[in-house]
Every structure is written in C-alpha cells, then in structure tokens.
Design a protein that fits this description.
Length: about 350
Amino acid sequence: MENSPLITIITPVYNVEAFLPQCLDSILAQTFQFWELILIDDGSTDKSGAICDEYAHKDSRIRVVHKVNTGQADSRNIGLSMANASLVGFVDSDDWIEEDMYEHLYRVITDFQADISMCSYFLDYVDKSEAVCKGKEVEVYSREEALDLILMDQEIKSYPWDKLFRKEMIKDLFPTSFYYEDYATVFKWMANAKKVAFYRAPEYHYRQRKGSTSNDADPAKAYHFFCAEKERYDYVISSNFSSEKKAYYARKFLKIAIVQAKNMAKYSICPKEGIKYIRKIGEGLSSYDSLNLHGLFLNKRFKRMKIQYFPSYFFYEVRMKWRLKFWKKSKFQLDKFY
C-alpha cells in the first residue's frame, strides 16, 4: 500500500453475491481516498469469495481473508486485529454507503476532536427508502450523555456501521458465543470515549431483507438477545450509575426477558425448543440476588403468557415455586415494572 491509510474499513462477507458489488462499489467511490478495506470471507458457498478477490485485484487498498465459517463476530475481530489505521469503521456486506460518508465522518471526528463520530442512516426496503434522521448539523455529546443515549436505546444505537472509532476506544472484542454481538459491545466502546460527535445527515444504507441475522425470529436468537441485554445490565450494575438509573435499567432488563420469552412462545416451531430457551432465561435471571425474581415469575401477565403458549412449562414452573421463596428479596421495588 503506497500511503498509510487513515481509516480501516472492516467488512465481513457471507453468501451475499447479489449485494456485494454494490457495497464494494460504494466504498471505492468514496471522496475520502485514504482508507484500507479488509474483507473477511466467512466461508461463503456462493460467488462472494471470488467477488472479493476480483475487487482486491483491482485495488491495492483491499485485502481479503478467506476462512471457515465462524460467524460475523469472529470475522469482525479478525479485521480489527489486521487494522493498520488509527480510525476504524465497519460496513456490512449487504449494505452500501453514500460517496461522502467517510469524508464527513473523518472531518467531524477531527474538527471536534472526538473519539467517535457517527451519522444517520437510511432503512432501505425493496420498494422504499426511509431516512431515520435528516439534517446537516453536528451534535456533540459527553461520555455520560452518549452512554445514557446508547444504553437507553434512544438517539444513539448500538450499530458499529454508522460510526467511526478511534482504535484505542476498542478495548473489548465482539463476543462470539451469541448473535447481537454489536448490542453487547459497542456501548463499551462508547464508555471509553470522552466525546462523541453526531453528524445528523443520513449516509449509510441499511438494507432490510429476509434472512438477515437481525430479522430471523427463533428461540435461539431471542435467547441471544437476552444474553446481549444481560451484558449491558451487568455493566450498569457494576458502574457508578445512580440508584434510580440502576433501578430503571433493572426494569428494562426484566421486561426484555419477558418479551423474549413471549417471542419464543409465539414463533417457536418446536415447543420443546421454546421451553428449553425459556428455562435458560430463567437460569440467567437466577444469578441476580438483587432482582425480584419471585415477583417476575408470579407476574400475572407473564403467567397468562405461559399458560396460553406453554401449559406444560407453566405446570413445571409451579413445581419449582417452592424454590423461589428462598431467593433473596429485591433491593429494588420492581412490582410495577410491567
């Protein structure tokens, strides 16, 4: 590579031959030229790997790694280990970006001396495109403000692809044991930043399609989302947040546990599979002495859901009722959480 890159772009690739050329062409078209692109072919069985090699042959800024299929998180981690630049961005292989995206993100992160810059994005459907946020102004957040926004799923989301990170912010790698690895990780990078700058113009195109990780509904993925939320809750209770914020997030955590259990019940093709993962959620909650699990399991709306969808599991749980009374009482008053 003739010039040292200022930005490393990491793109995991898996069976996206129909979308990959548009993604790569949008990166090659960037008005900001000082980048390197690391393509991680995650064991694709279609022509995606060959397309990666074709583009790498055309442009020396592109490097390709071919490996066995180990998942998106592992692919992103490999890309991070190979990054030469001091700034890191991510583009998913079925998405594409506006030609000036990295020019704006680079300008914002340098002009405002931020640790992370970010932009808005489009939700792209087959028949329409919707901008999540419009504008040209830049909003600057402190660490505390940014962390609040991302943990409460408000203006800052846990996507890595709409952001540019100083590499020293990335002290935690993506977990490889479950889906939704970005939801369990990006907030930790945000916690390492002193300043976050948000350029409100939509620059990233997030393709909405069936078969993507984020759109599949099955018990395993519902449980994995619970695991990612558990990572966030563990961070909150171990940090110096106020007792009010910890209580708020405890309610949020428990509500998500119930919603995911309900999704398992509604969408599971195999009831036994749904029951298995509902039990795993219960086991995950049982490690917290500070949560009112007794109140959770006796919650009327949760009980109705279990009777409706999984009567066999409901009666199994009745047998476990006597164990619940030995669990410690909650430090938080959560009886009105749902």
